[in-house]
Amino acid sequence: MSSVTRPLSPHLQVYRPQWTSVLSILHRGTGVVLCIGLLGLVYWLVALALGPDAFARAQAVMSSAIGRILLFLWTIAFFYHLCNGVRHLAWDAGLGLEIESAYASGKLVVGATAVLTIVAWVLAFTL
Fold first, then answer.
1. Maximum distance among all alpha carbons in the chain?
2. Looking at the domain assignment, is residue 33 inside a domain?
3. Do the domain assignments include residue 38?
4. Domain span holding position 84
5. How far apart are CA 1 and CA 110, in angstroms?
6. How high is the pLDDT of residue 37?
7. Mean pLDDT across the chain
8. Which DSSP symbol is given to 9?
9. For 60, which DSSP code?
10. Which residues contact 110 (CB under 8 A, 6 or more apart)?
11. pTM of the entire predicted model
């Protein structure tokens, strides 16, 4: 065995963040947030099944200031992951792989995330 020292692969601190890399990292992060948020949904559904007292406690938690902030962040994560997932499906079909298209679709994903989140929350409080 030779003792040749091979260079390590550059890591995040070597590269300058690019729009596509930031969106890729956010996609993975929102996947984690959705998994954690799923625990809140399960808690709410189990409380619903346990009866009115447990459900009232769960509703109090979810409608508190912290609960609403977490629900809002979970909604953002949901819509971002959804929109970016559709973007990845387009890439899998060979569409939009050029750098200009990748940047444009990334901006579209961020815009769609904002619009869908706002629409969902406006509808939730007006219906």
1. 71
2. yes
3. yes
4. 19-126
5. 50
6. 95
7. 93
8. P
9. H
10. 23, 80
11. 0.86
Total of domains in the chain = 1
> What tens digit of pLDDT does each residue of 29-85 get?
999 999 999 999 999 999 999 999 999 999 999 999 999 999 999 999 999 999 999
> Which single residue is written with the structure tokens 């890439």?
91
In a domain, 7, yes or no: no
**Residue 98: what residue type?**
E
Helix (H, G, I), strand (E, B) or coil at 119: helix
Secondary structure (3-state) at 98: coil
The rounded distance, in Å, linking the Cα atoms of 76 and 23 is: 14
Q: Token digits for 19?
A: 């729009």
List for the chain the helix, strand, coil content (%; round to 5): 80, 0, 20
Question: How far apart, in whole angstroms, are the C-alpha atoms of residue 72 and residue 86?
Answer: 21
